[in-house]
Amino acid sequence: MKKIIALLFSVLVVFGIVVMSEAKPCRYNLLFENVIAGSNIPKSAVHVSIKDLNTGKTVYELNPETPVPAASVQKIVTYTVAKDKLGNDYKFSTKLYRNRNNDYYVVMGADPFLTTTDVKSLFSGVLGKINSVTIDGSIVDNVEWGEGWQWDDELNPHMPKYSAYNIDNNILSVFIIPTMVGAPAKITTNVFYPYSFENYTVTTEDETNVKLAKNTDVSPESIVVSGTVSKTTLRKVPINSPKRYFKIRLTDILRKHRNPFLGEFQYGQLPYDYKFVTEIKHPMKMTSESILKKSNNMAAESFFKVASYDYKTKESGTTEKSIELFNQYCEKAGLNNSGVRIVDGSGVSKNNLLTAQFLTEFLAYNKNSDLKKNLPTAGEGTLESRMLYLKDKLYAKTGTLSDISALAGYLETLSGNNYAFSIIINSPNVKEADMKMLEEYIIREAYQRL
């Protein structure tokens, strides 16, 4: 009889353990679903996946396999793929070469950090006459605008065009300066570029409300400036041709050189009989911080595209070839990307599609890489004013587009456990602040309960 009772007790204990182990995820489900329900954001608009990095098990998910745009959170993926191809020691580089006849080649590197000052220093050691200057921009193709980027974003300073000829962030500084009350303001730029400004501004004593708009009916270089101005106002305007902008900056430098070059530039690939003179380099640390912490779109696009440049055949890098690199990376890593669509390197296009599940699996695969330390923690970068109580516990990339907010990365909870997570919210009827608040509530709940 005692053996039978002992056997029954053992069965009940085992059964209890099984029930408890199965009930645990249900308890988490209830916790997170209560948080989401309290936000008044439709569950269908919320996509969540939270994975335990120790066990590899998913502890909570909601609509995890639905492909949706994830905005700049996508930079986690494209940055990692590009870095895997280029290596940890990769540096953006702009090089200068010459031959015995003082013919010079400037080999562009699509460097998003290159400045006019850098290019000036490139030629600072050139003493003799400059016979000719040829520019090699073959590192990437001539496509300067991402698939699905909106035509009305052409004046968005966060979305400048990008190319092999990147310089000064491909941005023009426009100053709107008040004059006499009731009179038009004065409009000037920091450097010359052939934009024309239609000035409809009015100087006032106490109000500044300046608006800029493209007037393509007149010219691609025509910008309408309207509104009121009471104090000097700066507007950052993307230039519409990076190649022309670089040419103008280089022309100005070489005409002021100790031996002025007044000829026309040529374009072509570097021949093999030219000798290296010098270069301007920018390290990987700048790339990581710019893309992952500051969410710089031009840097993300340039880095992703440069990754597919073929140094052996000299074939230009393209977005399409870099997307193929992404597919190869997923195959090598055993990541299922069947529900994923990548069309650019920055996540700007809403034609991009990711799933919450793919993102957490991607993060989990890279848990032992340096990805985590390159992401901003609370109080840094795009998390500068968010979740400050989670400093050094949360490392994550943010994403924001109209109707979209996302957050993905790594979290160490109060209990010391580590998780990969992704939250993507897509809703045209919800304020951005409310979406970000829900992200923080989910993270706070995970931090305290998991």
Percent range for helical residues? 25-40%
Could you tell me the radius of gyration in angstroms?
27 Å
CATH structural class of the largest domain: Alpha Beta
Uncertain runs with pLDDT below 50, 5 residues or more?
Answer: 1-25
Q: Can you describe this structure in just a few lines?
A:
The protein has 450 residues and is α+β, with helices and mostly antiparallel strands.
SSE blueprint and pairings:
Layout: H1 2-37, E1 46-52, E2 58-62, H2 75-86, E3 92-98, E4 103-107, H3 116-122, E5 132-136, E6 171-177, E7 186-189, E8 196-203, E9 209-214, E10 222-229, E11 233-238, H4 242-255, E12 266-267, E13 275-282, H5 284-293, H6 297-306, H7 319-333, H8 356-365, H9 371-374, E14 394-401, E15 404-412, E16 418-426, H10 432-449
Parallel strand pairs: 4-5, 5-12, 8-10
Antiparallel strand pairs: 1-2, 1-16, 3-4, 3-13, 6-7, 6-11, 9-10, 14-15, 15-16
Helix pairs in contact: 1-10, 2-6, 2-7, 6-7
What does this structure look like?
There is one protein chain. The protein has 450 residues and is of the alpha+beta class. It has 2 domains: 214 residues, Beta-lactamase; 191 residues, no CATH class. It is built from 10 helices and 16 strands. A 5-stranded antiparallel beta sheet has the order 2-1-16-15-14, with helices on both faces. It has a 5-stranded mixed beta sheet with strand order 12-5-4-3-13. The protein has a 3-stranded antiparallel beta sheet with strand order 7-6-11, with no helix packed on it. β9 and β10 form a beta hairpin. α1 packs antiparallel against α10 and α2 packs parallel to α6. The longest helix has 36 residues. The two termini are 43 Å apart.
